[in-house]
Amino acid sequence: MKSVSNRVVRIWLACSAVAAHAQSDRVVVHPMDSGAALVNPGMGWQLHHYDNNIKEYGLELEPSDTVDDFPGVSSIYLRLAWSFIEPEEGKFNWSIVDTPTQRWVAKGKQIALRFTNAERDPDQPYATPEWVRKAGARGYFVTPGKGIDPQGKVWEPDYDGPIFLEKLDHFLAAAAERYDGSPHVAFIDVGSFGVYGEGHTGSTSRLPYSAATIRKHIDLYRKHFKHTLLAANDDFVSQGRGLEPMAYAHKNGLTLRDDSILVEPGGQAYHHAYLAPLFWPDVPVIVESEHYDVAVRKGNWNDGDRFLDAIEDYHASYATAHWYPREFLTNNRELIRRINMRLGYRLQLLEASWPAEVKPGEALLMGYTWRNAGVAPCLPGGHPTITLKDDKSGLVGVFVDEDLDVRSLPVGPPEKATPIGRVARLISQDSRPLIAFSLPPRHILKPGSYSIYISVGDNVGTPRVALPLENEDGSRRYRLGDITIK
């Protein structure tokens, strides 16, 4: 192993010597983080549109209002009871989902979905459609907070009941036909078990279902949603079920979601961060705040720092604002700003270097140093790309570093993640030599002065990732300076 390491260093030194000899005059820049809130694939703030019922929270907004001033919003969250979507068997009201969806999709946002089968609202006694009970499905009338009660106003299904599972299977098949694999859907919760779809029956029937029941529900979703990310609620481990449900979720590619951060104060603000290392290296983790006003009235919210702590401890990619969007924004602007500096991934370009002059047909020796300033890996991945533009903003050269994937950038505490890049000096064990891009011949790349841009995107140079840099060209390319082709 030692000999391999030494060989890599010798090769790197040789490349550096060539670079210094061939192109001694190099431009070196150290861009500053612009502080901008970034909207990127697989991360961001979420706003609740439907929640608990179809009266909260996004319903306060005018249909034309998509809260564009909330920095970092990437998606909206639609939590709806099954009964609203399929009020009669086989007859679906998809418009209740698709109408708000189209408002945000038009602004380049996504949605996330949860279909629930039990709620606590006496005005909504059947989250599972009443026709399922009438078809013979087992279940219980309950009084929230008291358990099973024949005089209760709310009906909860037996989550192991064969008729219930059969009807749920048909519903999920119909939902998957519309939404599985859609680029407009960020993820879908496995929300068919427990009150609010949170994975527990503590405030409804209080029945202690086993881990086997959780596996059944996960498998039903996996049967139909083969392409869209699925999320497992942290409360799957509650009521004595232990770690088995979450281990099963992890094994089958689901991610982790924790609802109602700060439902309790201080050190009890969240309980299951120990589950996060199973998930965050591979899939985007989701955390949701407690209903903001409830947390404030209980004295749990204070300055919201514990919500940021949860984002740090869970290495969260998504943060859900669980309240009326405008009120949450108005009262938490500084917290939102701080969270945006850490939520998900944040690719900082610490240094870039290139030759001041180079001839057509020669190698363009580029260097750059990157750091991930977020709490989560850049799970979508991407490659640094150098683009040359002429004075009319025409693209005259696109050079993709396919060997460097930004997904490999490590995470760490604020400002302490290890930088990695292509540099003229070793800065870490994973640093690499300058990359040599072959320039086209003279009749393609004419002599002259060009602007040099950097971006991160796919392997053919299409930018995908927003960077916290100034001088963006409108297409997620960022101007660094100039280069002369002699």
Describe the structure.
The protein is of the alpha/beta class. It folds into two domains: 2-35 and 346-485, Sandwich (Immunoglobulin-like); 44-340, Glycosidases (TIM Barrel, Alpha-Beta Barrel), CATH 3.20.20.80. Helix content is 23%, strand content 27%. The chain contains eleven helices and 22 strands. The protein has helices spanning 2-22, 82-85, 95-105, 130-134, 162-179, 211-224, 244-251, 292-297, 305-314, 325-331, 333-340, and strands at residues 26-29, 44-51, 53-57, 73-81, 110-116, 139-143, 147-148, 154-157, 185-189, 230-233, 255-261, 285-289, 316-321, 347-355, 357-358, 363-372, 383-389, 395-400, 420-422, 435-438, 448-457, 478-485. It has an eight-stranded parallel beta barrel with strand order 2-4-5-9-10-11-12-13, surrounded by four helices. Strands 1, 14, 16, 19 and 20 form a five-stranded antiparallel sheet that branches. Strands 15-22-21-17-18 form a five-stranded mixed sheet, with no helix packed on it. Strand 6 and strand 7 form a beta hairpin. Helix 5 runs parallel beside helix 6 and helix 6 runs parallel beside helix 7 (244-251). It is elongated and about 85 Å long. The protein starts with a helix and ends with a strand.
Beta-strand proportion = 25-35%
End-to-end distance: 44 Å
Helix content percent band? 10-25%
Characterize the largest beta sheet: strand count, sense, and whether it forms a barrel: 8 strands, parallel, barrel
What is the helix tally? 11
In the CATH classification, which architecture of the largest domain applies?
Alpha-Beta Barrel
**Radius of gyration in whole Å, from Cα?**
26 Å
